[in-house]
Write a structure and sequence with these properties.
- By secondary structure, this protein is mainly alpha-helical.
- It is built from eleven helices and no strands.
- The chain has helices spanning about 5-60, 65-70, 80-90, 100-130, 135-145, 155-165, 170-180, 180-195, 200-205, 210-220, 225-240.
- The relative contact order is 0.09.
Length: about 250
């Protein structure tokens, strides 16, 4: 091999090194962009956290301060434990310990509404998602329409219905409407239609399960996340519902 052919061969490693250095420099720019994006994301999340957490912290610190301290002290300042105990005694003794009665009634209504909502919403969502029957689309449309209706528009119809059934001024007049939870039906419908495979249900039918057996032994165990989610939303909705019990 002469010198003319050997010289280009010697330049090939240098060319490879320059090609290898090019992507390395380009790759070096990506971490800086990612660090900037992560920094912006962290600042935004920190702002949202402060926006939601600071009022909760103030809520826990407020009972430890007197009225004068609430007005003139720092909102996040800590008062005294003695003031906290005195505030709790005043709340507990309000109207001859009515607070315990209110808490018991709220817990009774909420827990009863959760059981009724789960017993109605989850099977209804399963039926709308995985079974075919006449009027299925109509029922789904009615569920969506009722879900977007304001709760205040249903107060008078519910009162007239409970009065017609002679259930007014009773716990059932509060618990029974709580069991009607169209948002839970829609959540269950979305879960069953997008998560449960129809082939799995068909295999259970081939093995001899009826429709109730397919739902009880196959679909319901797989639907534990949506059951917990519907129960959580129903409990929060019932606990913060002040129009129906009044």
């Amino acid at each position: 091999m002469d010198r003319a052919t050997a010289q280009p061969l010697r330049k090939k490693p240098a060319a490879r090194a320059s090609l290898a250095a090019g992507p390395t420099r380009r790759r070096g720019r990506l971490p800086s962009r990612r660090v900037g994006a992560l920094l912006v994301w962290f600042i935004v999340m920190l702002a949202f956290t402060g926006f939601f957490v600071v009022p909760v912290i103030w809520l826990f610190l407020a009972p430890t301060k007197t009225d004068h301290q609430l007005v003139y002290w720092n909102p996040l300042a800590l008062g005294s434990f003695h003031t906290f105990l005195r505030t709790w005694d005043e709340i507990y003794a309000f109207q001859a310990h009515e607070l315990l009665v209110w808490l018991w009634n709220s817990a009774r209504y909420s827990v009863g509404g959760v059981f009724l909502a789960l017993a109605c919403a989850v099977p209804a969502g399963y039926g709308l998602a995985l079974t075919q029957f006449i009027g299925r689309k109509v029922l789904l449309s009615i569920t969506l329409i009722v879900m977007i209706m304001p709760a205040s528009a249903l107060v008078l119809p519910l009162f007239l219905e409970m009065n017609l059934l002679h259930l007014s001024n009773s716990a059932w007049s509060v618990v029974l409407p709580f069991g009607f939870f169209p948002f839970g039906v829609y959540l269950s419908y979305i879960f069953f239609s997008s998560t449960i495979a129809k082939e799995l249900l068909a295999a259970a039918r081939v093995d001899g399960c009826n429709e109730w057996g397919v739902f009880r032994h196959v679909a319901l165990p797989l639907a534990r996340p949506i059951v917990a989610l519907v129960g959580f939303f129903e409990f929060v909705s019932d606990w913060t519902n002040f129009s129906s019990p009044s």
